[in-house]
Every structure is written in structure tokens, then in C-alpha cells.
Amino acid sequence: MSFESFVSSVQQLLPAERIITDDFRCFALGGDASCSALKPRAVLRINSEFEMSAVMRLARTHQVSLTFRGAGTSLSGQATGGSVLIQLTSAWNGHKVEPLGERVHLQPAVTCNEVNRLLAPYGRKLAMRVEPPAIATVGGLVANGALEIQGARLILADGSVVDSRDEQSVADFRLSQAELLAQLAELRREIVADAELVQEIQSDSAQQSRAGYRLQAFIAYEDPLEILFQLIAGSEGTLGFISEVAVATVDLPRHQAAVIAGFNLKTDYLNLVGSLQGFDLQRAEMIDASAIPAFKPQHELPVFAQQLNADGCLAFLEFRADTAQALQSDIDRFTAWLADSDCVGFSEFYQGASGISQCHSLASSLVNSVVAQRMAGTTPIYQSYAVPDTDFEPAFMQIKQWLTEFCCAGSLAWGDVTTGRIGFVVCPSFSSEADSESFVQFRQQVVALVQAAGGCLAADYGVGRLNAVAMQGIASNKKNSLLRALKSLLDPDCILNPGVILEDEGQPFQVSFKATPVVNAKIDACTGCGLCESVCVGRGLEFSARQKIAVYREIETRKEQKRELPKYWEDQFKTLALDSCVTTGLCQQVCPMGINTGQLVVSLRAIHNYRYQRLAWGCARHFAALSSWARGSLQLLTSLQRLFGAERVEAFSRRIRRLTGDRTPLLLSTTPGRSRPVYARNELINLGKENTVVYWPSCISQTFGKALADDRENIPAVVQRVLKKADLNVVHPQPTRGLCCGQTLAKKGFEAAGEHMLEELIAALWDISSAGRYPVLADTSACSLRVKQRALERGIHLYDSSEFIDKFLLNRLKLNPEEQQVAVHVTCSTRKLQAEASFYRVLNRLAPRWVEPEGIDCCGYSNEKGFVYPELSEQALKGLPAELKGCVYGVSNSRTCEIGLSRHSGLTYYSLFELLDRHSEALSEAHR
Ligand SMILES: Cc1cc2nc3c(=O)[nH]c(=O)nc-3n(C[C@H](O)[C@H](O)[C@H](O)COP(=O)(O)OP(=O)(O)OC[C@H]3O[C@@H](n4cnc5c(N)ncnc54)[C@H](O)[C@@H]3O)c2cc1C
Ligand code: SF4
Ligand code: SF4
């Protein structure tokens, strides 16, 4: 029995691509948001219950331990393991909402955001007080005790399956597992007979502790099977696998308000909260005022916040009421209460879902600002404890004091007296053993404090590995032996996440902390939280932004420390981390540290591609010829498609691609033919004429035309027709061909060559716009993003298509809006341009019944990426067709994105200009 024999048995069960054993990918996929440095020896991607059950049986036979993985956002190390990590494929994304939305059945890989999106039409949401990250999965939430269940389908360590919602399954289980259930019943008898133990368990339960197994189940239920189901929630993957759960939902709060108040003394705030009566308080969190100086930009904070002294706090109070009148009356009473209190000032009352989320985001930005300013090379560790309310203030003050003494940069405390929760983040350096030791001592102090106060560890973030030893120190001997008895009953061979919740006796957990090396200022602040994975197209296919950073750090550290660095690590890094990035920087928009991993990728590509510099310059200098060649190739492709059939050409190119190790592009049946470039001679146009506008057709729209099966036109032709219809005097930058913003080169790391092209373009725009006098229309959002700011610096006003239509065209045309439902894709560039508002305004006028599929952030196409790396857009858009019910076609504003969207949705995606052209006519002179 060995790890190797386990792997060879698994090879009989799973296809090779779902068994990962090379240390490079295991390293990348193994990290989570915690400070645990454990890395798996194998990662298995499991597709079905059958496979899961078989793998669990094999693990038991071969004595190999398993760690289940959701989104890997756990903060206490419970999602990391040193043996086999189990990832779930998208086959575990199933869900079913009951008719009124009051209950929902969920498979474990569905994320909490997805569930809330499903429930929104019913006016309901998941019943959770916590705010986990959007990508946290149902499996992770239940296993970490954040989500209560009403029923479950479980796989136990011996591979047996039981479903509490299925009578037959329950009856079979009672028969086949009679002995296990009898032993659970025996444990129950021992517990209820022990008054002291009952009291200890009930005290934990009163504090809503997430510190280990829900022993309260033994007191609340008699049926051992019911006890088993209750124990799974909060068991952190140590008692069984959660295959499906039934979860109750709650009404979306309709009448809620939040207010931020500042206090110079925390006692003033705590006194106020103590005296608040008659409010349905949902949150009463205070954040230590020491966070305020780190917050940027300061002007986004209420003015009173900037005046608080360092001992004060900012309070975030949230309450709700049954009716709008009741809410208003609560707001009035609250205002009077605050005005009478010692608060330094308070904000307006934020109302409705968007107001509440604005308030939440301010609170998390405060914490993130502090973490972002930690010293380079330190690792943030988040902890959450609970103490009785009588001890809240002294415990909070003591922890704050220790934080200051232990590590002043990057540490912060917050808490909510109504739940007794105290949270903090501390940022130790783990660059030496002494650092680790001093952090351990700091934690021991805190644990002793919580213990003395009769509080509980791991209030919100679970026990994990980090708190396992300390938690056993706090629990009575009786409770500890009960916990162990339970574990050995359900997992006798200790194969499920050993070392989590309970210290692994056979192999005590050596605290192995994740150091954060200083390698590159672009990403040094990364905490590994994983929030970027919600938008990253690399996730699930190759490496996500978080994984790119993790392996990059490791490679650089090994180089620095002159440790072994196999050549294949660097080769694989290029393929799995660099080539799989579309560099749109969407990750930056969700990263709490503001990191744009795309920028790191571009800078590393510059190093890798250095030897091709001359070629890049050649392309930049002869771009018109290159574009002609590209158009010629597309024309040739169309001819081949006509001759042999588009599907056959695709199948053939797929074979070639496989033979060349993915080095050749895939000639998709949907690859467009050539477009017709714009030939315009401006000298014939009267520049002095009123209503002159500049139209800059991007090289993309001058190159990519329509695919064989498309019923569409080339974009420049459509745009020119619309501009004519709107009676605008149109001029084009000269030359009309060969001008390009240079982003394809820049994204490949040829910054100087790309910059040269951008400068040429800006110079041409400056000339033709009469030094900025005429507005410039750019028809491709990705290009607008690159050019807009630089153009503005030269006084040129460049508008992306949606902005241009919104500002100059809607009121110059007679609109006949589309009556059918259309799908919309707002490109990431449009979002980065902050032009979504124009885009939606235009849609509201042109196709009011539009829908925007959720969860499709990036289409994975990004310039040529979609042609040379089609797997990326396949991955990014795989959920798209399910979201498009009832739509007749789609609309976007970037030609390459439209190509990818059309391919993967089954609908044709047109440009905004094509939509406008079809649904508008010229105004008569009288109307102008
Ligand atoms: C920035 C940030 C903020 C956070 N804020 C909060 C917060 O406000 N409140 C809060 O409660 N948490 C918070 N967390 C912690 C974390 O997001 C939650 O604990 C979440 O529930 C973890 O979900 P996950 O999908 O990432 O699970 P993972 O971290 O992947 O796994 C969590 C545990 O569940 C087990 N597991 C996963 N799937 C299964 C399964 N199918 N069957 C059995 N066991 C399984 C794993 O083995 C592991 O022990 C935060 C984390 C971050 C990074
Ligand atoms: S890049 Fe940002 S979002 Fe991604 S893991 Fe790092 S800190 Fe988190
Ligand atoms: S730029 Fe896009 S693909 Fe690249 S790491 Fe960021 S989100 Fe992922």
C-alpha cells in the first residue's frame, strides 16, 4: 500500500488528463487563501459520484489521504493537504430551485453568487449572515459551517452514499450501516448523560461557534442518522463528501438601511450599541480607526472619519424593517440616537441593496487598504474569535495592543459586539524560523485570552489546520475524546483531511507557513485570496491569476536561493501561465489589492520574446502590408471553406494543430473571411463643413469580415452608412490602412514597437481631427481602451462606438426599436473605459428587451488569442448558451469578441452599429 499504488489504481478509473501528479501543476493548484504551505502530491479532477465513491474506497485501501477542494478561499488551511487534492469538474454545478424558491437543491461546485442569481427572480437569497467571496462554493460553505442545510446527499469514507431526501436511500443505509448508526447512538447516550459535557457543548452552540463538529446535534436529535447529517455541516471535509444539499432560502430584505458613524472612543460606540433597542440590527461592526490613514483615496471617506483619533473606531450599522414607513421611522429614531450619542459624525443612511453593498464595500476596502500597505514579504493571516459580550471590550483592546506590538504594518482589528465576534488580520514574515516562532507565540497569547474569557476559536473562518492544536487546548478532555471518537467512527483510517479540526495524532501538524517572497512590485501585495478567479478565463483550463502568481513567486524564489528548478517548470510556466492569459486585466477590477496579473504576464512575455524584437519592429513598420497579407489569408481560407466545406477545414486544421503540439491556429468554421479596408481620400471632403467627425476604422474591423454562414456586413461599411444617414461629414485618418494602436504587439511584450504604432496613430488622429476640434469615432472597444487616454492627453476626443452613438447619433436618427429579445455582451474594455452606462442607454433605445447573461465576464478572445488558443474562449463561454433562452441574436462592440460569442452561443452577435443601422432611418430635414 503506497501513494504510487493508489495512483496506479486511480489510473484504471480516471482518464489521464484528470490525474495530475507533476510537482509543477500540483504546486500551482494546491494553494488556497490561507497561510498553509502544504502542497499536494496529486490532484484528481472528479466528474461524478461514482468516481468519487471509488476514489474514496481506493484511498482507504491504500491509506492515502484526501482533501476536498471548493474554490480554495478558506483562511485556516483546511482546503490544503499534503497528499491528494480533489477538485470537482463543472459536472458538479447542478441545481434545482423548488417552485416558490423557498428551497434549493445544490451540487457542491455551484458558487454562492450563482445561487443568489438563481434565486433573485423569486425575490430570495441564501440564508447566510456571512459575506463569503463570490466564488465560494456550496460544498465549501457547508463544510465550513457558513451555510445551514435541510437535507444532504453524502459519501462516507467507505464510499457508501446516503441521501436524506430519499426514503429508499435512507432505508438501505439504515440496513447496511446499522453498526455505525448504533455506535453513533451509543455516543449520544454517553453525551446526554454527562451534564458537564452538555453544558460545554451548549455554550459553544450559543456562540454560534464554527469551532469543529456540531456536537449540539447529539443533544438536539435522537435519530443517529439525523445526527450524522447535522454533523457534516462544519466538518471541513473530515467526515465525508457533500454530494448535494437542500438549503432553505430567505426573502431578499426589501427595506434595509445602513449608516456609518465615527467615534473617538470605542467605549462610546459600545455604550451606544448596548442601549439600542427595538431595531432589527443585522450588523453592528466596528473597525479600528487605525485603518483610516491607509485608505485611499481619502476623499471617498466621510469627512468625520478623517478627523477621528487613533483610539476611535468607524461603526457600520445595518438594520431592516418590514415596511418602508417602518424603515423611515427607524431611520428617524436612529438619527436621534446618533445625534444624542458621543459620535463624532455619521453618514447619510444608505438604503436598498445597492446602498448596503456600497457600505459593505467601504468596510472591506478599509481592511484591504491596510493589508495592501503591509511590508513587502509578509503574509496576511485572518483570524476570527468570539467572546461573551461582557468581555468584548477588554478582549478587543488587548488584541489591538498585541497587534501593535507584534507587527504594526498591515495589522488591524474589527469586531461586532452583538455577536461577540472579534476579527483581525496580522501580517507576519515567515522568511525565517524565528519569524514563524514569534507568530506562534503571538497566537498563543490570543488563544489564552479567548480561553480565559470562555470564548471560542475559529468563529467565522473554521478551525482548519491553523487552529486545530489551539482548539484542542481549549476544549475539555472529555470533549476532545468525544471529537476523536466521532472522527474514528466515521473515518476510521483517517483518510479525510487529516490534521484539520483535529491534530493528526499519527503525524502531528508541523506548522508550515506560506512565506510571501518579494519578487516583483507588480504582484508582491498578492494575498492569494483567489477573488480574481471569478473573472479569470485561465481558471479551470490552465492557471488562474492566483496560480500564475503563486508559481511565478516560487520560480523566482528558487532562482534567488539557487535551489533546484527543473527546466520543465519554466517551459510549463510559459505555456500554462503566460500563454493562457488574455491580458485584459479584468482581474484587477476584482482584486482587493488592485493587482493586474495581465501586466505581470506582459512584462514576462517581453523577456521570453526578446529574441523576436526585430520581427516585431518589422511588423510595426510594415503593418499595412501585414494586414493585406492577413486579408489575403482569410480570403484563401474562405475559398477553401467554399471548396471543401467549413467543418471539414476545421477538422483538418484541428488534426494539424494536434500534430504540431498546438503550435498552429485552429481554422474554425466560424473564422470570418476578409473585410474590405476603407479607402478614403480626405482632400475631397470639406473639413470646414459643420458636423464633421473623424471615423477611425480599427485594423480589426478592416481585416475581419463575415464568416461564410453569416448574414452580416463588414463593419466599416455599416458605420459609414450610419454616419451618412445621420448626415455627418466624415473624414478618416490618413493613411486609412496600416494604422493600428499596436496593442497586439504590446501584449506580446514588444512594448516599444507597440508604442511606435500608437504614436503614429495618435499623430494621424491629431492631424485629421484638426488638433482635436472634431470628435473621433473608434469602432473596436479594445482599441479605444488603449488609445483613449493617450489621445485625450493630446487634446483629441476619442469615443468608443457606444459613447459615440449615445452622444452624436441617437438624436440624429429616427429609431425603430427591435421588438425581440436580444443578448448583450459588454466587453471588458467597455467596462474599463467606464462606458457601460452609454452602452446600456443605447440598448434601451434600440433593443429595450435586452438581456445580459451573467457570469460571462471575459469572452477569452482578446485580439488573436481566440484563433491561436481557442480553448480559452471555449472555457470562458461554456455556460453561455444556457443563458440565452428567448434571444434572437446578440450585440457587442468588438469584432473579435463577436466572433467568439457567435461561435459558442449558437446566435450571431452583431456590432452595436449593425443594430443601429437595422433599426434607424434618416430624419427628414424638418426634424433636424
Ligand atoms: C477575502 C475573503 C473573505 C472571506 N470572508 C468570509 C466571511 O465573511 N465569512 C466566512 O464564513 N468566510 C469567509 N471567508 C472564508 C471562505 O471564503 C469561506 O469559508 C468559504 O466557505 C470557503 O468556500 P470555498 O468554496 O472556497 O471552500 P474551500 O476553501 O475550497 O474548502 C473549504 C472546506 O470545505 C471542504 N470541502 C469543500 N468542498 C467539499 C465537499 N463537497 N464535501 C466536503 N467537504 C468539502 C474542504 O476540504 C475545506 O475543508 C473569506 C475568505 C476570503 C478569501
Ligand atoms: S491577485 Fe488579487 S485577487 Fe488574485 S489572489 Fe492575489 S490578491 Fe487575491
Ligand atoms: S488578465 Fe485576464 S486572463 Fe490574465 S490573469 Fe487577469 S483575468 Fe486572468
UniProtKB/TrEMBL annotation:
Signal peptide as annotated in the record: none
Domain (4Fe-4S ferredoxin-type): residue spans on this chain: 515-546
InterPro entries for this protein: 4Fe4S_Fe-S-bd (IPR017896), Cys_rich_dom (IPR004017), FAD-bd_oxidored_4_C (IPR004113), FAD-bd_PCMH (IPR016166), FAD-bd_PCMH-like_sf (IPR036318), FAD-bd_PCMH_sub1 (IPR016167), FAD-bd_PCMH_sub2 (IPR016169), FAD-linked_Oxase-like_C (IPR016164)
An example Gene Ontology molecular-function term: iron-sulfur cluster binding
Matching SUPFAM superfamilies: alpha-helical ferredoxin, FAD-binding/transporter-associated domain-like, FAD-linked oxidases, C-terminal domain
Protein EC: 1.1.2.4
Pfam families: CCG, FAD-oxidase_C, FAD_binding_4, Fer4_8
Coiled coil: 170-204
One example of a Gene Ontology biological process annotation: lactate catabolic process
Co-factor(s): FAD
Protein name: D-lactate dehydrogenase (cytochrome)
Source organism (scientific name): Reinekea marinisedimentorum
